[in-house]
Amino acid sequence: NLQGPRYVSPAPNGGFVVSEECGDVKVFMSSRKLLCSLSSKYGHQFGNPAGICVDADGSILVADEQRRTVHLFPEHGAPICLVSAGLRRPTGVACSSFGHLFVADTGENSVK
C-alpha cells in the first residue's frame, strides 16, 4: 500500500504514520491496516512530505520539503499551517512533551 516510504512515526493508538516520497501521508492501525490517507481525509495536497510526528493530542505534524512548510493535522477539524516561512528544506520534525516543535532544516544545516 506504500509508494516510496520515507519516514515513520508511532501513533498514540498503537498504530503508525508513514510519509511517502512525493506523495502522501498514510495512517495505519495497530493491526497494520490502512486507516486513512491525509490527502484524502483533509483534501490536502502535499509537495514532498518528509518528517512526521504525532503530538500528545494525537495530531499529526508533517514537514513538507518541497512546499517548505509544517502542517498540523488534528484528529478533527481542518489542517493548520504552523510554519510557512523561514525554512529552506524541512526534512524532520519532533514534538516535545512540553509542546515544543523542533524542525530539522537540511537546507540550513540547523534545527529550528
TrEMBL record:
<dbReference type="Pfam" id="PF01436">
    <property type="entry name" value="NHL"/>
</dbReference>
<feature type="repeat" description="NHL">
    <location>
        <begin position="43"/>
        <end position="76"/>
    </location>
</feature>
<dbReference type="InterPro" id="IPR001258">
    <property type="entry name" value="NHL_repeat"/>
</dbReference>
<dbReference type="GO" id="GO:0043161">
    <property type="term" value="P:proteasome-mediated ubiquitin-dependent protein catabolic process"/>
</dbReference>
<dbReference type="GO" id="GO:0000209">
    <property type="term" value="P:protein polyubiquitination"/>
</dbReference>
<dbReference type="InterPro" id="IPR050952">
    <property type="entry name" value="TRIM-NHL_E3_ligases"/>
</dbReference>
<protein>
    <submittedName>
        <fullName>NHL repeat containing 4</fullName>
    </submittedName>
</protein>
<dbReference type="InterPro" id="IPR011042">
    <property type="entry name" value="6-blade_b-propeller_TolB-like"/>
</dbReference>
<keyword id="KW-0677">Repeat</keyword>
<dbReference type="GO" id="GO:0061630">
    <property type="term" value="F:ubiquitin protein ligase activity"/>
</dbReference>
